[in-house]
Structures are given as structure tokens and as C-alpha cells.
Amino acid sequence: MNRRVVSVDSPADAPQSLIEKYDLRVVPLHVNYGLESFRDGVDISPQDIFDRFDESGALPKTSSASVQEYIDFFTGILDEGAEGIVHVSLSSGISGTHQNARLAAQEMGAADRIRVLDSLSLCSGMLFPVLAACQARERGLTTDAMYAAAAEVVPRVDAAFLVGDLTFLRKGGRCTALEALGANALGLRPTLVLNAEGRIVTGKKYRGRRDVCRRKFTEDRVSTPHDARTAFVSCTADFDRKELSALRKFAAEAGGFEETLSPTAGCVITSHCGRDTIGVFLLKKED
Questions:
Q1: What are the φ and ψ backbone dihedral angles of 286, each rounded to 5 degrees?
Q2: Contact 60, 49 (CB under 8 A)
Q3: How far is CA 107 from CA 103, 104, 140, 179, 265, in A?
Q4: CA 283 – CA 121 distance, rounded (Å)
Q5: Which of 6, 95, 128, 129 has a Cα at 20 to 30 A from 23?
Q6: 3-class SS at 134?
Q7: CA 253, 259, 265 angle in degrees (round to 5)?
């Protein structure tokens, strides 16, 4: 194993290719139906969430890994012989994961070896600091230097989703029935963006057919001045793969990216955003 390990919370939805390439370790968050609790990506899949909703109209609640779960997770890595860990957490603006991971490191008396970074993002937006930490490790840098490299990119992460169906947002209490009705009547499709505090806010609204809105959303996203290496075009599990392929190709060509990756949203993102959602995540240019 690597002597210095990079880990991340499961809502990063890291594709298997990145997990294997960088020996990335993942902490599963929880997806809860009443007293039933499942681990994101371990005991439950996004399709399970869609199936349950179709059968009963039930939506789950999501929750952080506990302090003890982080202690067990970090201890397992250190017991393998790791000398340091850089852990990238889900945004503290929307979850308690960052606080729990930091408390775990402190309770272990290992805060100097376990550096916990607040991504201030979610989904593929979390993968930019992950990649920065992994690439710093490949250059032979220390745990502290890996953390610093990851922290440097956090303010430059630009994360946004275009929601295709407001049903999950309405059922989950994240928009009112009146708001959903008005949006549907007007053919409006809202974006959800991460602000500087790592909180989700409503952004630009698009009007028209879904495919037209998604194309325009992608075009607007890649027109932002950005680092031209990597972009993530993420989507929910139900998203049409042919359209995704076309949007990914368009993003790569229009944005001049060296690579575009297309992770599938996991259970946490699916629980909140629902069906037919796409996100475009990029790294803005340095000021």
C-alpha cells in the first residue's frame, strides 16, 4: 500500500477507475429508511432508491458516518502501515461529516497524521482536491504538503447540477409544491450550485425541453474560465447514456479539456436530487 493514503466520503462518487489508480479509500455515509440503515454504495444502490420510491413513494434520509466509524476507518488504514492520511470530507455547509472526521482524528491523538480537509463541495466537486492530494503524493510530497495541495484547489472548484425532475426535491421538503407546480407549468429547470460557504443555493433556471436545457447548461458551464485538464460530467443512474456521451463529448470539445470523466451519482446525491439530474464540475482558473 501507499505509505500516505488519500480517503474521501462516499458522496464524492469516485469512479472505480480512480479508486483503483490511486488506491483511494472511501467512507460510506448512511441512507436511512425509518429504522433501516444502509451504507451508501455498499448495502444499497441508486436503483434501489428509485425502486422504493416507485413502489411506495418513500424517500430516505441521509446521515454522516459517526465519529466511531471514522475512528475505525482511520485505525484500519494506520494499522496497515500508513504513515499519514489526507481525508477529503463532504462540505461542512451541508453535512456533519467534516466535524465527525476531525473529532475522530483528535480522539485518536493522530491529528498530525490524519489531515481532514473540508471540500466545501459534493459529488465530483470533491474529486478535484482528491486528485490534487494524490498527484502531490506521486511527486513524493509529505502528508502536510499533500493536504496543502488539496486545500489550494478547494476555492476554485465550480460545482453545479441541473435538476431534471423536481419530484424528489419537493417530496424531500427542499422546494414547495407551489414552487414545483410553477416550475413545471413554465417549463423551468433549476440549477443547484455550491456557494463559497459550501452550501447549496438555487442558480440559473433554464426553460424548454430537457435535452435543449441540458445542452445549454453544459455550454454555459464550460464557457467559464477554467483549468483545461479535467472536467466531470456526472449524472444520476437513470440518465440516458447516449445523451450523456454526447454531452461529455461536447463538454470536452467546447471546453478544451484533456479528459472528461462521467461518474454516476451515488445514493446520497440521488436521494436529494432525484431523477434525470446532470452535473458539470470544473476547476476555475487561478486569480
A1: -65, 145
A2: yes
A3: 6, 5, 28, 45, 32
A4: 12
A5: 95
A6: helix
A7: 105
Whether the full predicted model's pTM is greater than 0.90, yes or no, is yes
CA dist 72 and 100 (Å) reads 12
Using a CB cutoff of 8 Å and minimum separation of 24, what contacts does 227-230 make?
Answer: 227/156, 227/282, 227/283, 227/284, 227/285, 228/255, 228/256, 228/257, 228/258, 229/257, 229/258, 229/259, 229/283, 230/128, 230/131, 230/257, 230/258, 230/259, 230/260, 230/261, 230/283
The length of the chain in residues reads 287
The 10 Å Cβ neighbour count of residue 185 is 8
From the CA atom positions of the chain, what is the Rg in Å?
19
Gap between the Cα atoms of 72 and 32, Å rounded: 21
Cα 5 from chain centre: 19
pLDDT, position 114: 98
| pLDDT at 108 (0 to 100) | 97
Counts for the chain of helices (H) and strands (E), in that order: 11, 13
Residue 108 in grid coordinates: 485518536
Do 197 and 93 meet the contact criterion of CB atoms below 8 Å apart? yes
Residues of the chain with pLDDT under 70: 1, 166, 168-187
Name beta bridge partners: 32.
37, 61
Burial class (CB in 10 A: 0-12, 13-18, 19+), 284: middle
Residue 182: predicted pLDDT: 40
Residues with Cβ within 8 Å of 54's Cβ and at least 6 positions away in sequence, in order, are: none
